[in-house]
């Protein structure tokens, strides 16, 4: 049996392009022969560490992004909607606490999954990943202050997580351990050469191959020896 190819996905919920990359890679994780490792990290730290500038401070880049996201949302079939004040939501409120919550939830979910084995319905970790879609729709759709605990709780419930898992995640979200893990992931992304998200890292023969953005899936597929079947691979395969 062929061993799975390891791909790391570095993302930040504050980035709409990260959501596109997240959704597509989740769709392909069981289509391609890959092991997808989710690596939530702090986009603000990557921007600062790499010397990059966010679209909000480059007018032409920001105007392009607002139009491009509309096209991308339609193509990838992801319900992206611009918030009332995108600069405020994406570049001022930040995502450090929100990502700490997510990382904490994933870790807690994995512990519960290991403890419960097959008895835990529907792979808790995957359910939390799917919960990002609900959570992001609240952020991008309404421009709410999504770092609030209540939004995380709502997203987790929609993803099917139990009250106990949610409680554990919220209690450990602000811990030094979780914050340190987020910092470590951010530094790891910078060490790979990141300057923005999403960042896909394919490990080939011990050497990392880096792909930036949500428009490099065809190149990634070529690199790993798989086929790109469009944004909805299961639908595309059914038509063949």
UniProtKB/TrEMBL annotation:
Its EC number is 2.5.1.18. One of its GO terms (biological process) is glutathione metabolic process. It catalyses: RX + glutathione = an S-substituted glutathione + a halide anion + H(+). The active site is at 15 (nucleophile). GO terms for molecular function: glutathione peroxidase activity; glutathione transferase activity. One of its GO terms (cellular component) is mitochondrion. InterPro entries: DSBA-like_thioredoxin_dom, GST_Kappa/NadH, HCCAis_GSTk, Thioredoxin-like_sf. This is Glutathione S-transferase kappa.
